[in-house]
Amino acid sequence: MVDATLRRRGWLVSATCLALWAASTLSFAWYVFVAGLSAEQRRLLEQFAHRPLETTIEPLVVLLVSTIALGVLTGLSLVYYGYAQWRHARHRRLALECEPEAERQ
What we know:
The chain has one domain. It is 82% helix and 0% strand. The chain is built from 4 helices and no strands. It is elongated, with a radius of gyration of 22 Å. The two termini are 32 Å apart.
């Protein structure tokens, strides 16, 4: 795969992860703050810390877990994208420094 294609795909993955994370966060915030939580949902969220596997079927808990997972994935993809950009710039700088003086002028 060409380096530019890899960087473009890295940008696309990072942007997609960021958009999904933002949508998930907004959805969770709307569900919690605007729609409000029922007493059963509050109880399930309190139980989540103690018994996470038993509460994973509740949609609100699934949304919370997916929001956290997408946030982590977004962070990792942005770090990788930044690393790929840095690596490309470094290789380009080294290539330009190794270029003979006669060819540059």
